């Protein structure tokens, strides 16, 4: 199964279908489409089954929360693990586990033994599996195609996800009516056989030998968080994501009740509404390059947010099935416009060494906002009614557009985040250096008086670069006796972590460092001090 947050817009350049010429991509693409059809069928079945088990809007919205909450809880751990272990093996293990869980779920429903609490537990377990799949899958896509074809591969993944969204819900609604509520869960269980078979068939390319041992999970999580906190482009993306998903979650949380209570429909109507979302997303993906070219990323997200607000308002004030289907298609267009723009912004803000962890932080914000929002809107609907909850969510989504406008998207697109590898190997005479820490790095600069202001400004940028690479406790001090002399210091947890920092420095960091050196007289003097003797 592939997380929906992997979606990106189709590439406008020639050769958009070129990735299908590579057998590994083609086989895994087909397998993930099949798996995602099963996942959407499972989601429809769970949402509709809960409306039969409990009439409470809060409990029904809890299905959406149980799906998204695990990603909020476990995405950081999953991203760290995906950056450390064999990703193919990780995908195999998780997909087999999910196949077992979905089989037990189907058998429980077929036996008539399902309860609201048990359904939430099963849903939480499936969401946990999705949390561990998403960053690992995102990290293997560059291994399936040559680098020039990566944008096309990501676009085709987006298309596949939305094709499965268009097929799965409609098929689930049909099977529920024809065979019973157990049937979508059974199909989902079978779909995992397809993805496991594809992963067993695929042989990933050999990885280059690592110069350094793998990071420990806790250290890897800290490094990912430290990078995110010191990356302006990623932080801006996270702000915009939280603002949108907190209110857009009302649509996904309330849709089963909208179909059943507001529109007085059955599972077929519910499946049609979800299929309309998928069809709208596919159509939106086709026109998205033109929209982004005309509007840019920030205005595209604003337009998608306005479209989502319009959909919520339409459901609240016009209880008509035809209008609901049209509104759902608009919801799909709006969703893919916002989601793909945010995802592209997050991707361009991340270098390869921390990509899975950075995207897992994006997933944490995404699903955290969705989980909290689902519960909030379910509670509001319980207290004030479904239409009122939808109108409040629509108003909130619109209100946050100007409030978050300063958080610009795509700031990392122009940055070269490839490793520069320009730091020289440090001279080490101390014994057992790799086992010692913390490490203090001290760099002394000689700066002419007229350049002090420019130097300080550049060193503020340098401070963020040091922290992104693994540093902490950064300071810049000026010599009281010789004002032209500045001393920069920062700490790293161990000598091994400092060696990793050497491999993490990017070409963009190098450009800042070159500007700093242009303001200094002579070569800066670098010294390393080891703790733990």
TrEMBL record:
One of its GO terms (molecular function) is transmembrane transporter activity. Residues 24-411 form the Major facilitator superfamily (MFS) profile domain. The chain crosses the membrane at residues 58-78, 90-111, 117-141, 153-179, 185-202, 238-258, 270-288, 300-318, 324-346, 358-378, 384-405. It is a multi-pass membrane protein. The keyword Transferase does not apply. It holds the Pfam family MFS_3. GO terms for cellular component: plasma membrane. It is found in: Cell membrane. The keyword Transmembrane applies. Keywords: Cell membrane, Membrane, Transmembrane, Transmembrane helix, Transport. This is MFS transporter. It comes from Pontivivens ytuae.
């Amino acid at each position: 199964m592939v997380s929906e947050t992997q979606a990106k817009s189709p590439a406008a350049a020639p050769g958009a279908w070129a990735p299908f010429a590579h057998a590994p991509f083609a086989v895994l693409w087909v397998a993930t489409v099949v798996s995602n059809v099963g996942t959407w069928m499972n989601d429809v079945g769970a949402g509709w089954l809960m409306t039969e088990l409990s009439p409470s809007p809060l409990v029904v919205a809890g299905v959406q929360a149980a799906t998204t909450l695990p990603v909020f809880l476990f995405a950081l751990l999953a991203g760290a693990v995906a950056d450390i272990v064999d990703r193919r093996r990780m995908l195999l293990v998780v997909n087999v586990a999910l196949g077992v869980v979905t089989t037990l779920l189907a058998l429980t429903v077929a036996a008539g033994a399902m309860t609201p609490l048990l359904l939430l537990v099963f849903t939480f377990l499936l969401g946990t599996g999705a949390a561990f799949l998403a960053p690992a899958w995102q990290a293997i896509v560059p291994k399936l195609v040559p680098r020039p074809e990566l944008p096309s591969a990501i676009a085709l993944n987006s298309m596949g996800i939305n094709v499965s969204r268009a097929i799965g819900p409609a098929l689930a609604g049909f099977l529920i009516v024809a065979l019973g509520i157990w049937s979508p869960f059974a199909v989902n269980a079978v779909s995992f056989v397809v993805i496991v078979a594809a992963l067993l068939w695929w042989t990933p390319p050999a990885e280059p030998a690592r110069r350094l041992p793998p990071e420990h999970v806790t250290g890897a999580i800290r490094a990912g968080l430290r990078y995110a906190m010191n990356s302006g482009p990623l932080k801006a993306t996270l702000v915009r994501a939280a603002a949108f998903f907190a209110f857009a979650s009302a649509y996904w949380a309330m849709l089963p009740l909208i179909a059943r209570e507001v529109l007085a429909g059955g599972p077929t109507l519910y499946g049609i509404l979800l299929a309309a979302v998928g069809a709208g997303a596919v159509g939106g993906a086709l026109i998205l390059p033109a929209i982004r070219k005309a509007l840019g990323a920030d205005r595209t997200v604003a337009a998608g947010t306005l479209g989502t607000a319009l959909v919520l308002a339409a459901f609240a004030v016009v209880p008509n099935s035809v209008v609901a289907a049209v509104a759902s298609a608009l919801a799909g267009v709006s969703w893919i416009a916002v989601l793909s723009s945010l995802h592209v912004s997050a991707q361009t803000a991340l270098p390869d060494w921390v990509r899975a962890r950075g995207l897992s932080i994006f997933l944490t914000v995404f699903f955290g906002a969705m989980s909290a929002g689902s519960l909030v809107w379910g509670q509001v609907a319980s207290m004030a009614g479904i239409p009122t909850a939808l109108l409040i969510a629509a108003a909130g989504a619109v209100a946050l557009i100007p409030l978050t406008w300063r958080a610009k998207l795509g700031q990392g697109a122009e940055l070269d985040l490839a490793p520069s590898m320009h730091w020289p190997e440090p001279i080490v005479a101390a014994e057992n250096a790799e086992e010692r820490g913390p490490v203090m790095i001290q760099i002394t600069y000689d700066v002419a008086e007229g350049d002090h202001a420019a130097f300080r400004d550049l060193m503020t940028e340098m401070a963020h670069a040091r922290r992104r690479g693994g540093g902490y406790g950064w300071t810049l001090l000026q010599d009281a006796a010789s004002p032209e002399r500045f001393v920069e210091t920062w700490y790293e947890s161990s000598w091994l972590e400092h060696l990793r920092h050497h491999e993490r420095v990017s070409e963009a960091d190098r450009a800042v460092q070159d500007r700093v050196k242009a303001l200094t007289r002579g070569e800066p003097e670098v010294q390393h001090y080891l703790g733990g003797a």
